[in-house]
């Protein structure tokens, strides 16, 4: 019986030992599992993450347009021909004085003084009239003359315009004319004050301006092309009358083959002496006329000076401040409102600002 108890006790002990071993194994396994789990949480398994490189926007090539698709460049302000207008760079003092016979003087070998920009931009018609100067005188005008600028009707009346120097020249009986800087037949401009100047018939018609205006008009009408054209007045300092004009012309589309000129036209009149400062004129005396005037005792004395009055009555032009003998043709042409008579001597009249007429008093 004791033996049986011993066996039972031993069996129980062994059984308990086995449970403990199993329990410890289980606990050890659980602990290991916890450690593995903790390790897994603390040190996650590294996985290779692919490197993402920045992507660039796809480049699309702009197709080159064909010649028919090339867009026209917009015309900028600088491309307008009016932006290149200017007076020529020329010293008028280099022009010889009028000698009584020549009406024109060729400048720069007859080649216009236009700039490259002015020539390049003249393919379309335009016209420009520079403002009057501080004394109210015309300065210059420039145009690319085309058929679209030319008038379609006859010129109107321009008698209401009185350019500087008009009235004093009118009182000189030379018959001044209102001269268009750019001729009416080229521009259609009628009575624009910045396009009119006081001039002689010789300047306006017989001496040259009309000649070159006709040349330009004929070319434009016959070809449909343009002519770059500029006329500049030659006013010296404070003179009231221009001494002349510089005329320039160059056909555009054929690079000057059809028309090209650069000439100075004198504002003069054969047989007349003009005072450009005060815009007056006196007709020159001929040898035959000088002999006639001697009959009136108005010649010079032996010393070459004008004689004293000696009771003689002189005719005065109060506008031109000239002294005439009664028989002088110039005296007979003085307007009534500018005419006066005086018995003072020449010296006394000169002291009042008068001067002797070259026709009758030398």
Automatic annotation (TrEMBL):
Keywords: Signal
Biased composition (Polar residues): 26-36
Biased composition (Low complexity): 45-78
Protein name as it appears in the record: Type VII secretion system protein EssD-like domain-containing protein
Organism expressing this protein natively: Eubacterium cellulosolvens (strain ATCC 43171 / JCM 9499 / 6) (Cillobacterium cellulosolvens)
Pfam families tied to this protein: Endonuclea_NS_2 (PF13930)
Type VII secretion system protein EssD-like domain sequence ranges: 124-251
Spans annotated as Disordered: 26-80
InterPro entries: Ada-like_dom_sf (IPR035451), DNA/RNA_non-sp_Endonuclease_sf (IPR044929), Endonuclea_NS_2 (IPR044927)
């Amino acid at each position: 019986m004791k033996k049986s108890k011993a066996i039972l006790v031993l069996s129980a002990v062994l059984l308990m030992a086995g449970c403990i071993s199993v329990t410890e194994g289980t606990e050890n396994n659980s602990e290991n599992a916890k450690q593995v789990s903790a390790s897994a949480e603390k040190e996650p398994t590294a996985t290779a993450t692919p490197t993402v490189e920045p992507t660039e926007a796809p480049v699309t090539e702009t197709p080159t347009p064909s010649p028919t698709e090339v867009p026209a460049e917009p015309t900028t302000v600088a491309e307008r021909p009016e932006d290149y207008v200017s007076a020529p760079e020329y010293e008028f003092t280099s022009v010889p004085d009028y000698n009584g016979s020549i009406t024109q003087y060729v400048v720069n070998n007859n080649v216009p003084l236009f700039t490259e920009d002015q020539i390049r931009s003249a393919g379309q018609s335009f016209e420009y009239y520079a403002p009057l100067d501080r004394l109210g005188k015309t300065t210059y005008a420039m145009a690319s003359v085309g058929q679209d600028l030319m008038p379609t009707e006859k010129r109107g009346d321009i008698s209401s315009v009185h350019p500087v120097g008009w009235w004093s020249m009118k009182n000189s009986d030379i018959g001044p004319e209102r001269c268009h800087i750019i001729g009416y037949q080229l521009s259609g401009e009628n009575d624009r004050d910045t396009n009119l100047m006081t001039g002689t018939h010789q300047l306006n018609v017989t001496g040259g301006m009309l000649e070159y205006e006709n040349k330009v008009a004929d070319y434009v009408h016959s070809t449909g092309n343009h002519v770059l054209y500029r006329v500049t007045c030659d006013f010296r300092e404070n003179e009231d009358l221009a001494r002349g004009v510089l005329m320039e012309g160059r056909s555009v589309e054929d690079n000057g083959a059809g028309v090209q000129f650069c000439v100075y036209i004198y504002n003069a009149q054969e047989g007349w002496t003009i005072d450009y400062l005060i815009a007056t004129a006196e007709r020159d005396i001929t040898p035959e006329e000088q002999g006639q005037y001697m009959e009136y005792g108005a010649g010079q004395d032996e010393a070459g000076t004008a004689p004293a009055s000696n009771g003689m009555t002189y005719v005065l032009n109060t506008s031109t401040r000239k002294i005439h003998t009664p028989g002088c043709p110039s005296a007979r042409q003085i307007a009534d409102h500018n005419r006066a008579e005086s018995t003072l001597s020449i010296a006394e009249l000169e002291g009042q600002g008068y001067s002797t007429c070259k026709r009758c008093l030398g």
